[in-house]
Protein backbone atom coordinates (compact mmCIF):
# COMPACT_ATOMS: atom_id res chain seq x y z
CA UNK A 1 0.00 0.00 0.00
CA UNK A 2 1.09 3.54 -0.74
CA UNK A 3 0.09 6.46 1.49
CA UNK A 4 0.38 10.22 1.05
CA UNK A 5 0.57 12.56 4.06
CA UNK A 6 -1.04 15.70 2.66
CA UNK A 7 -0.01 18.00 5.53
CA UNK A 8 3.11 17.78 7.69
CA UNK A 9 5.75 20.12 9.08
CA UNK A 10 9.12 18.42 8.66
CA UNK A 11 12.15 20.41 9.75
CA UNK A 12 15.09 20.20 12.10
CA UNK A 13 13.40 22.62 14.48
CA UNK A 14 10.73 20.00 15.21
CA UNK A 15 12.75 16.79 14.82
CA UNK A 16 16.40 17.70 15.24
CA UNK A 17 18.84 14.97 14.28
CA UNK A 18 15.98 12.44 14.09
CA UNK A 19 14.61 14.00 10.88
CA UNK A 20 16.29 11.52 8.54
CA UNK A 21 14.96 8.63 10.64
CA UNK A 22 11.45 10.13 10.49
CA UNK A 23 11.66 9.96 6.71
CA UNK A 24 12.98 6.38 6.79
CA UNK A 25 10.17 5.29 9.12
CA UNK A 26 7.64 6.91 6.81
CA UNK A 27 9.02 5.10 3.77
CA UNK A 28 9.00 1.81 5.69
CA UNK A 29 5.32 2.37 6.53
CA UNK A 30 4.47 2.96 2.87
CA UNK A 31 4.25 6.75 3.11
CA UNK A 32 6.00 7.59 -0.14
CA UNK A 33 4.38 10.99 -0.62
CA UNK A 34 4.25 14.03 1.64
CA UNK A 35 3.30 17.68 1.39
CA UNK A 36 5.70 19.63 3.60
CA UNK A 37 3.95 22.82 4.66
CA UNK A 38 5.55 26.19 5.31
CA UNK A 39 4.19 28.62 7.89
CA UNK A 40 6.57 31.58 7.45
CA UNK A 41 9.14 32.78 4.95
CA UNK A 42 12.03 30.93 6.56
CA UNK A 43 10.42 27.51 6.92
CA UNK A 44 8.81 27.84 3.50
CA UNK A 45 12.31 28.11 2.04
CA UNK A 46 13.36 25.19 4.24
CA UNK A 47 10.44 23.11 2.93
CA UNK A 48 11.45 23.86 -0.66
CA UNK A 49 15.05 22.85 0.08
CA UNK A 50 14.01 19.70 1.95
CA UNK A 51 11.71 18.20 -0.68
CA UNK A 52 14.16 18.56 -3.56
CA UNK A 53 16.13 15.66 -2.13
CA UNK A 54 13.11 13.38 -1.58
CA UNK A 55 11.22 11.80 -4.44
CA UNK A 56 7.44 12.10 -4.07
CA UNK A 57 7.61 15.00 -1.60
CA UNK A 58 6.23 18.47 -2.41
CA UNK A 59 6.39 21.81 -0.62
CA UNK A 60 3.79 24.46 0.13
CA UNK A 61 4.80 28.03 0.95
CA UNK A 62 2.95 30.68 2.92
CA UNK A 63 2.49 32.61 6.15
CA UNK A 64 0.34 31.04 8.87
CA UNK A 65 -2.47 33.23 10.26
CA UNK A 66 -0.91 33.08 13.72
CA UNK A 67 2.30 34.52 12.28
CA UNK A 68 1.01 37.36 10.12
CA UNK A 69 1.15 39.82 13.02
CA UNK A 70 4.94 39.45 13.12
CA UNK A 71 5.47 39.20 9.37
CA UNK A 72 7.59 41.80 7.58
CA UNK A 73 6.80 43.10 4.11
CA UNK A 74 9.94 41.32 2.94
CA UNK A 75 8.48 38.01 4.19
CA UNK A 76 5.59 38.27 1.71
CA UNK A 77 8.08 39.22 -1.01
CA UNK A 78 9.96 36.01 -0.21
CA UNK A 79 6.79 33.91 -0.54
CA UNK A 80 6.17 35.51 -3.93
CA UNK A 81 9.74 34.74 -5.00
CA UNK A 82 9.40 31.09 -4.01
CA UNK A 83 6.12 30.73 -5.88
CA UNK A 84 7.46 32.38 -9.04
CA UNK A 85 10.47 30.05 -8.92
CA UNK A 86 8.14 27.17 -9.83
CA UNK A 87 9.34 25.03 -6.92
CA UNK A 88 6.19 25.31 -4.79
CA UNK A 89 3.36 22.82 -5.26
CA UNK A 90 0.87 24.85 -3.22
CA UNK A 91 0.21 28.12 -1.39
CA UNK A 92 -0.13 28.16 2.39
CA UNK A 93 -0.51 27.39 5.21
CA UNK A 94 -2.90 30.32 5.26
CA UNK A 95 -6.40 30.92 6.59
CA UNK A 96 -8.03 32.21 9.75
CA UNK A 97 -7.52 31.32 13.42
CA UNK A 98 -10.11 32.66 15.85
CA UNK A 99 -8.84 30.40 18.67
CA UNK A 100 -5.62 32.34 19.30
CA UNK A 101 -5.32 36.12 19.36
CA UNK A 102 -1.69 36.35 18.24
CA UNK A 103 -2.66 38.23 15.05
CA UNK A 104 -5.48 40.77 14.55
CA UNK A 105 -8.45 39.28 12.72
CA UNK A 106 -8.51 41.93 9.99
CA UNK A 107 -4.83 41.34 9.29
CA UNK A 108 -5.51 37.60 9.07
CA UNK A 109 -8.28 38.30 6.56
CA UNK A 110 -5.91 40.50 4.53
CA UNK A 111 -3.22 37.83 4.36
CA UNK A 112 -5.74 35.09 3.63
CA UNK A 113 -7.04 37.17 0.72
CA UNK A 114 -3.47 37.67 -0.54
CA UNK A 115 -2.84 33.92 -0.47
CA UNK A 116 -6.15 33.17 -2.20
CA UNK A 117 -5.46 35.65 -5.00
CA UNK A 118 -1.91 34.32 -5.43
CA UNK A 119 -3.17 30.74 -5.67
CA UNK A 120 -5.74 31.78 -8.25
CA UNK A 121 -3.17 33.71 -10.28
CA UNK A 122 -0.68 30.83 -10.25
CA UNK A 123 -3.21 28.00 -10.53
CA UNK A 124 -1.89 26.34 -7.38
CA UNK A 125 -3.83 24.66 -4.57
CA UNK A 126 -4.43 26.61 -1.36
CA UNK A 127 -3.70 25.01 2.04
CA UNK A 128 -6.24 26.42 4.52
CA UNK A 129 -6.14 26.57 8.33
CA UNK A 130 -9.56 27.20 9.89
CA UNK A 131 -9.37 26.88 13.68
CA UNK A 132 -12.73 27.96 15.12
CA UNK A 133 -13.25 30.01 11.94
CA UNK A 134 -14.74 27.49 9.51
CA UNK A 135 -17.78 29.55 8.53
CA UNK A 136 -15.74 32.72 7.91
CA UNK A 137 -13.02 30.90 5.98
CA UNK A 138 -15.54 29.14 3.73
CA UNK A 139 -17.31 32.46 3.16
CA UNK A 140 -14.06 34.01 1.92
CA UNK A 141 -13.43 31.03 -0.36
CA UNK A 142 -16.98 31.32 -1.72
CA UNK A 143 -16.52 35.04 -2.38
CA UNK A 144 -13.19 34.42 -4.12
CA UNK A 145 -14.79 31.71 -6.26
CA UNK A 146 -16.78 34.41 -8.03
CA UNK A 147 -13.45 35.56 -9.54
CA UNK A 148 -12.31 32.10 -10.56
CA UNK A 149 -11.47 28.63 -9.32
CA UNK A 150 -10.10 28.22 -5.78
CA UNK A 151 -8.40 24.83 -5.37
CA UNK A 152 -8.65 24.81 -1.58
CA UNK A 153 -7.46 22.06 0.74
CA UNK A 154 -9.24 22.38 4.09
CA UNK A 155 -6.56 21.10 6.43
CA UNK A 156 -7.55 18.99 9.47
CA UNK A 157 -11.22 19.72 8.91
CA UNK A 158 -13.29 20.10 12.10
CA UNK A 159 -16.46 21.72 10.79
CA UNK A 160 -20.01 20.43 10.70
CA UNK A 161 -21.49 18.14 8.07
CA UNK A 162 -23.31 21.14 6.58
CA UNK A 163 -20.07 23.11 6.34
CA UNK A 164 -18.31 20.12 4.81
CA UNK A 165 -20.99 19.80 2.13
CA UNK A 166 -20.78 23.53 1.39
CA UNK A 167 -17.01 23.20 1.00
CA UNK A 168 -17.40 20.14 -1.21
CA UNK A 169 -19.80 22.06 -3.45
CA UNK A 170 -17.10 24.72 -3.82
CA UNK A 171 -14.68 22.01 -4.97
CA UNK A 172 -12.57 21.92 -1.81
CA UNK A 173 -10.52 18.92 -0.76
CA UNK A 174 -11.11 17.82 2.85
CA UNK A 175 -8.17 16.81 5.03
CA UNK A 176 -8.75 14.13 7.69
CA UNK A 177 -6.24 14.01 10.54
CA UNK A 178 -5.60 11.80 13.55
CA UNK A 179 -8.29 13.72 15.42
CA UNK A 180 -10.86 11.22 14.13
CA UNK A 181 -9.30 8.63 16.46
CA UNK A 182 -9.84 10.75 19.59
CA UNK A 183 -12.43 9.34 21.98
CA UNK A 184 -14.36 12.63 22.15
CA UNK A 185 -14.45 13.20 18.38
CA UNK A 186 -17.67 11.38 17.43
CA UNK A 187 -19.06 14.41 15.59
CA UNK A 188 -15.88 14.57 13.52
CA UNK A 189 -16.11 10.86 12.74
CA UNK A 190 -19.69 11.34 11.57
CA UNK A 191 -18.51 14.02 9.14
CA UNK A 192 -15.59 11.89 7.90
CA UNK A 193 -18.02 9.16 6.86
CA UNK A 194 -19.72 11.57 4.45
CA UNK A 195 -16.77 13.12 2.60
CA UNK A 196 -16.92 12.21 -1.12
CA UNK A 197 -14.11 9.82 -2.00
CA UNK A 198 -12.71 12.04 -4.73
CA UNK A 199 -12.32 14.98 -2.30
CA UNK A 200 -10.80 13.05 0.61
CA UNK A 201 -7.22 13.46 1.87
CA UNK A 202 -5.24 11.93 4.74
CA UNK A 203 -2.87 14.00 6.84
CA UNK A 204 -0.89 13.94 10.07
CA UNK A 205 -0.19 17.64 10.74
CA UNK A 206 3.08 16.32 12.16
CA UNK A 207 4.52 16.94 14.68
CA UNK A 208 1.06 17.68 16.10
CA UNK A 209 -2.20 15.71 16.51
CA UNK A 210 -0.83 12.20 17.00
CA UNK A 211 -3.60 9.62 16.50
CA UNK A 212 -4.55 6.96 18.99
CA UNK A 213 -2.81 4.79 20.14
CA UNK A 214 0.06 7.31 20.00
CA UNK A 215 -1.72 10.37 21.35
CA UNK A 216 0.56 12.50 23.49
CA UNK A 217 3.67 11.52 21.55
CA UNK A 218 5.30 13.56 18.80
CA UNK A 219 3.50 12.87 15.55
CA UNK A 220 5.25 11.92 12.31
CA UNK A 221 4.15 10.92 8.80
CA UNK A 222 4.39 7.17 9.42
CA UNK A 223 1.49 7.55 11.85
CA UNK A 224 -0.90 8.37 9.00
CA UNK A 225 -1.46 4.62 8.73
CA UNK A 226 -3.37 4.70 12.05
CA UNK A 227 -5.68 7.40 10.71
CA UNK A 228 -6.18 5.47 7.48
CA UNK A 229 -7.11 2.35 9.42
CA UNK A 230 -9.64 4.25 11.56
CA UNK A 231 -11.11 5.91 8.48
CA UNK A 232 -11.49 2.57 6.72
CA UNK A 233 -13.50 1.20 9.65
CA UNK A 234 -15.68 4.33 9.75
CA UNK A 235 -16.47 4.20 6.05
CA UNK A 236 -16.78 0.40 5.88
CA UNK A 237 -14.00 0.25 3.29
CA UNK A 238 -10.69 -1.58 3.16
CA UNK A 239 -7.56 0.24 4.21
CA UNK A 240 -6.19 -0.59 0.76
CA UNK A 241 -8.99 1.43 -0.83
CA UNK A 242 -8.51 4.35 1.57
CA UNK A 243 -4.79 4.37 0.79
CA UNK A 244 -5.34 4.19 -2.97
CA UNK A 245 -8.04 6.85 -3.14
CA UNK A 246 -6.39 9.40 -0.86
CA UNK A 247 -2.99 8.94 -2.48
CA UNK A 248 -4.45 9.44 -5.95
CA UNK A 249 -6.30 12.54 -4.75
CA UNK A 250 -3.16 14.02 -3.20
CA UNK A 251 -1.06 13.38 -6.29
CA UNK A 252 -3.75 15.00 -8.41
CA UNK A 253 -4.22 18.15 -6.31
CA UNK A 254 -0.48 18.69 -5.76
CA UNK A 255 0.44 17.73 -9.35
CA UNK A 256 3.15 15.40 -8.04
CA UNK A 257 5.90 14.93 -10.58
CA UNK A 258 5.47 18.29 -12.30
CA UNK A 259 7.29 20.59 -9.85
CA UNK A 260 10.57 22.28 -10.84
CA UNK A 261 13.67 21.08 -8.97
Assess the beta-strand content as a share of residues.
15-25%
CATH superfamily: Metal-dependent hydrolases
Can you give the helix content as a percent range? 40-55%
Structural Rg = 17 Å
Report the uncertain regions: none
Query: What is the CATH topology?
Result: TIM Barrel
Mind telling me the CATH class?
Alpha Beta
Please list the strands of the largest sheet in the order they lie side by side: 1-2-3-4-5-6-7-8
Question: What letter string, H or E per element, gives the SSE order?
Answer: EHHEHEHEHEHEHEHEHH
What is the oligomer described by this structure?
single chain
Q: So, CATH architecture?
A: Alpha-Beta Barrel
Annotation, overall tally of beta strands:
8
Task: Please identify the structural class as seen in this structure.
Answer: alpha/beta
Count of helices? 10
How many domains? The number is 1
Quick structural summary:
Helices cover 43% and strands 16% of the residues. With 261 residues, it is an alpha/beta fold. Helix 3 runs parallel beside helix 4 (73-84) and helix 9 packs across helix 10.
How would you characterize this protein structure?
The protein is of the alpha/beta class and about 260 residues long. The protein has one domain (about 5-255): Metal-dependent hydrolases (TIM Barrel, Alpha-Beta Barrel). It has 10 helices and 8 strands. It has helices at about 10-15, 20-30, 40-50, 75-85, 105-120, 135-145, 160-170, 185-195, 225-235, 240-255, and strands spanning about 5-10, 30-35, 55-60, 90-95, 125-130, 150-155, 175, 200. The chain has an 8-stranded parallel beta sheet with strand order 1-2-3-4-5-6-7-8. Strand 3 (about 55-60), helix 4 and strand 4 form a beta-alpha-beta unit. It is globular, with a radius of gyration of 17 Å.
Amino acid sequence: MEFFDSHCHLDAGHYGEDLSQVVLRARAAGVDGMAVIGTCANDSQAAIDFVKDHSGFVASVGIHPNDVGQALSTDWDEILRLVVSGRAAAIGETGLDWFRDSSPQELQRDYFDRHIRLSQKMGLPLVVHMRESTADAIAMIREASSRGTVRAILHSFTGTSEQMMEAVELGCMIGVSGMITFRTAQALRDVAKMIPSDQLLLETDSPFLSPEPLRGKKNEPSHVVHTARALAVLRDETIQRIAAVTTANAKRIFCVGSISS
